Structures are given as structure tokens and as C-alpha cells.
């Protein structure tokens, strides 16, 4: 007997409603055209949490882009770090390059939300990941994940 897995359907079915709800709640955070904001329905709570964090930690901040990339949530905000996402045969690596060399509280919140996998991620773990990336790539780098050691 063969079992087939059921396709979840359109995981973006409520995309317009989700974006509209956040634009209504945080109008100043969404200045870009609507195509700049797109995330699967299951991530809406995480994006809403990021909006609340942006409002609290950087009231004048706004989102440049919110999207799915390489199967993960990506949140780009004004004044935020530059991002480098690399897809390799060994997996996807994400690194944030901070102009000042230090990850802000908002950067750590976003790193937590982007790396959420159904479990709590502690801020200390994100800070440690930033420190590991800074040590590996220089003082101006911080990351949401530690770099994978090179295989021998």
C-alpha cells in the first residue's frame, strides 16, 4: 500500500490579509511597494513580533523587505546590517555585516525570529553566534548563525 503525503496547498493564501493587517497596525513600517513584503502564512506571528520589536526598539525604522529566502525568513530594515546569504552544497550560510561591529538588540531579535524552528532561541545564543562570526570574519561582522567549520 502506497501512502501519499498531502500537499499543504497554498501556503501564501492569506498573504494579502496578513500584509494589510500589519500595514494597518504599523503604517510607517511599510513604505515600499507591496511586492517587497511576502511571507508564508505560518510565519505571520513571527513577522508581527518583528514589527512590534521594530516599533519598540527603533520607532522611526521601517522594513525594506520581508521575504522567504532559501526556505528561511529574511527581514531587512532601514539602518540594519548588510546581509550575505550563501548557498553551498553543504547548506545555506547567513552572515550579517554590522557597520559598527556590534549587533544591536533589534538585530538579535531578528536573528532569533529568523532562526526560530519551533523552539525558543535565547538571546545569548544569538549574541554568541555574532561573536563567533566576528572572530571568524573580522570585527565588523556579526551573524545570525555561526559559520560552519571547513571540512578537512
Please give a structural write-up.
- β3 and β4 (91-97) form a beta hairpin.
- Mean pLDDT is 73; it is low at 118-126 and 137-152.
- A 3-stranded antiparallel sheet has the order 3-4-5, covered by helices on one side. Strands 1-2 form a two-stranded antiparallel sheet.
- It has 4 helices and 5 strands.
- The chain is globular and about 55 Å long.
- With 152 residues, the protein is of the alpha+beta class.
- Helix content is 33%, strand content 19%.
- The chain has helices spanning 15-25, 44-57, 105-114, 123-137; strands spanning 63-69, 72-77, 82-88, 91-97, 141-142.
- α2 runs antiparallel to α3 (105-114).
In short:
This protein is an alpha+beta fold and 152 residues long. Helix content is 33%, strand content 19%.
- Give the spatial strand order of the biggest sheet: 3-4-5
Shape: globular
Mean pLDDT: 73
What is the count of DSSP helices, taking H or I runs of 4+ residues? 4
Order of helices and strands: HHEEEEHHE
The secondary structure category is: alpha+beta
Q: Largest sheet, if any?
A: 3 strands, antiparallel
The percentage helix is 25-40%
Radius of gyration: 17 Å
The low-pLDDT segments are: 118-126, 137-152
- Spatial gap, N to C terminus: 44 Å
Q: Would you count the extended β strands for me?
A: 5
Amino acid at each position: 500500500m502506497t501512502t501519499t503525503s498531502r500537499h499543504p496547498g497554498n501556503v501564501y493564501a492569506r498573504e494579502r490579509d496578513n500584509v494589510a493587517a500589519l500595514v494597518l497596525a504599523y503604517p510607517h513600517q511599510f513604505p515600499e511597494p507591496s511586492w517587497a513584503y511576502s511571507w508564508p502564512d505560518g510565519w505571520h506571528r513571527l513577522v508581527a513580533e518583528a514589527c512590534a520589536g521594530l516599533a519598540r526598539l527603533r520607532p522611526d525604522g521601517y522594513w525594506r523587505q520581508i521575504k522567504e529566502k532559501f526556505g528561511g525568513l529574511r527581514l531587512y530594515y532601514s539602518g540594519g546590517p548588510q546581509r550575505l546569504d550563501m548557498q553551498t552544497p553543504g547548506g545555506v550560510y547567513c552572515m550579517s555585516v554590522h557597520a559598527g561591529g556590534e549587533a544591536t538588540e533589534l538585530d538579535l531579535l531578528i536573528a532569533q525570529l529568523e532562526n526560530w524552528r519551533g523552539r525558543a532561541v535565547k538571546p545569548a545564543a544569538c549574541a554568541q553566534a555574532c561573536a563567533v562570526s566576528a572572530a571568524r570574519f573580522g570585527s565588523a561582522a556579526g551573524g545570525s548563525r555561526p559559520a560552519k567549520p571547513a571540512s578537512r
